[in-house]
Design goal:
With 199 residues, this protein is α+β, with helices and mostly antiparallel strands. It is 33% helix and 32% strand. The chain has three domains: 31 residues; 75 residues, no CATH class; 65 residues, Nucleic acid-binding proteins (OB fold (Dihydrolipoamide Acetyltransferase, E2P)).
Length: 199
């Protein structure tokens, strides 16, 4: 790749970044809110108190699918591996203890009502998503890599009963397994064995 091409790419990125910043500023001017989605979680988090414990400072907030948002709209990064293994769902209430030596210890304290759906893993805008019920739900990269999922696999995700943008991966059915099961059913086979169709 030539220096001219790199320069053009950098200019395109800068232009897109400036456009995004302008759009966010316009949205903030219209709504009076810097980040509408973050404000939603901050409002919900305002009902849970902050405090302290023998271990350190305690902050409570709401999981937004990727981070914890407190009542002031401050975000705290939730380790993706913890969120994946704990199967945290957007809207879950969380408690963060910040120890005196600066460690962050998270705990799920108020899980929201849940439901599960099955969909197909896709990639869109550089993000892994699950297409289910005619909608796409973002999923954590850590979950995709943990399950060794690939685009096209059938994925079971956990969602809050309310509307959501993020899902928590529960299980993955590899594409080759699901396709074999469908072929077996269509062709009358059992236990994944394919049998010739009768004409």
């Amino acid at each position: 790749m030539s220096d001219d091409q790199l320069l053009i790419i950098q200019e395109l990125i800068d232009s897109a970044t400036n456009s995004l910043r302008t759009a966010r500023n316009m949205l903030a001017d219209l709504t009076g809110v810097q980040d509408v989605s973050r404000q939603k979680f901050a409002t919900r988090a305002s009902t849970v108190p902050m405090g302290s414990s023998a271990m350190g400072k305690v902050v409570e907030g709401i999981f937004d699918g990727q981070n914890m948002v407190d009542s002031d709209g401050q975000t705290y990064p939730v380790p993706a591996n913890y969120a994946s293994k704990s199967k945290l769902v957007e809207g879950d209430g969380m408690k963060l203890t910040i120890t005196e030596d600066g460690k962050f210890i998270y705990k799920q304290i108020h899980p929201v009502d849940r439901r599960t759906v099955v969909g197909a893993l896709i990639q869109e805008d550089g993000q892994y998503k699950v297409l289910a019920e005619g909608k796409t739900y973002r999923v954590l990269l850590a979950s995709v890599t943990f399950y060794r999922a690939e685009v096209g696999d059938q994925v079971t995700i956990i969602l809050p009963k309310d509307d959501a943008h993020w899902g928590a991966v529960e299980n993955v059915i590899p594409r080759n397994v699901s396709e074999a099961a469908v072929r077996s059913f269509v062709n009358g086979g059992e236990d994944g064995e394919l049998t010739p169709s009768v004409s």
